[in-house]
Backbone:
């Protein structure tokens, strides 16, 4: 990619993954991709159809690494804390999940 071009959606996912992030909001993607909100939405829809992302809640997306493509999402314990924080909701971890942490 040359320095004058806008980043593409797959590149955005790769940058997130290399930094250890597997979740993002639609606003984050729009800002990173530039262009119009409609263009960002279309790019996210294309990624979802390809199975590269999933949307467990409106405006919240998770990248789906190859090892989880058969599940079509990340395991819930890998994104629920970020989702609950985004939604400003208090939640409790069950006994077995708490022991895992």
Residues:
């Amino acid at each position: 990619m040359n320095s004058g071009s806008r980043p593409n959606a797959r590149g955005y996912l790769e940058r997130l993954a290399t930094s250890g992030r597997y979740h993002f909001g639609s606003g984050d993607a729009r800002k990173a991709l530039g262009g119009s909100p409609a263009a960002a939405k279309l790019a996210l829809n294309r990624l979802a159809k390809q199975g590269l992302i999933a949307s467990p809640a409106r405006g919240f997306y998770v990248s789906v690494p190859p090892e989880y493509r058969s599940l079509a999402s990340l395991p819930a314990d890998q994104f629920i804390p970020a989702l609950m924080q985004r939604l400003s909701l208090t939640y409790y971890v069950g006994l077995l999940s708490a022991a895992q942490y």
In short: DSSP finds five helices and three strands in the chain. Strands lie at 23-25, 53-57, 60-63. The two ends are 40 Å apart (CA to CA).
